[in-house]
Amino acid sequence: MESHKNPTHKGNFFAVFSYFRKKKTMYIGLQHAHSGLAYLALLALIGVIFYALYGALTGKGFTEKDRKIAMVAFILAHIQLLIGLILYFVSPKGYSLLASGSAMGDAAARLTALEHPVINIIAIVLISVGYIRAKKLTVDTARFRSIYMFYAIGLVLILSRIPWTSWLG
Ligand code: HEM
Question: Mind telling me which residue stretches traverse the membrane in this protein (predicted)?
Answer without folding.
Answer: 36-57, 69-90, 117-134, 146-164
